[in-house]
Automatic annotation (TrEMBL):
Domain Flavin reductase like: 19-177
Name recorded for this polypeptide: Flavin reductase like domain-containing protein
Keyword Transport: no
Cited InterPro entries: Flavin_Rdtase-like_dom, Split_barrel_FMN-bd
Amino acid sequence: MNIDPKQQEKLANYKLLIGSVLPRPIAFVTSMNRRGVVNAAPFSFFTVMSDDPPMVSITCMRKPGNLPKDTARNIAETGEYVIHVVDGENVRQVNQTSTDFPPDVSEVEAVGFDLLPSEKVRVPRIAQTKIQMECRLHQILPMGGTVGAPNADVVIGEVVMFHIDDALYEAGRIDTARLDPVGRLAGVTYGKVGETFSLPRQKYAEWVEQKKER
């Protein structure tokens, strides 16, 4: 099966992408507009961009009419936001925040999340999460579509403060099992970490020796 993305509709390409690039970690993002209304929304186009300084990115698809999503607009206006890791305990409430609430309605209040003050940004954190990353905007890149009507906004931010549940943290590492992260699959399907295995990286000299032994 060979498929030329230029020969099919946008939605068809989207289905192929989300069915191929998986599992995808979920960034649950709080942002705040200029009136102080806190917005919360999940994004599964989410990844690490740098570790020095620590930087992460989320991709916010544009709404119909080429309108930026509330999260992208709020971040562009204030330059601050918080990313939370989605886990088995909060995923159902997080999913509820994807409802198309009006811009002046706080998803946080609507679904029953509690807020905590952040330390370095004005945007508050969600109490019912085990990992929170306070972020400051580095850059927003319009992507796809046309010059005047992009398809998406890639938001790149620097992590200026980590908040990690004490039960997860040991010797600089995070206990994956205790975190119980949840990722997105295709359609409306979610998934947890299942069977895991380790494959240590080899030095080239070790690889050469193994080839000789075979």
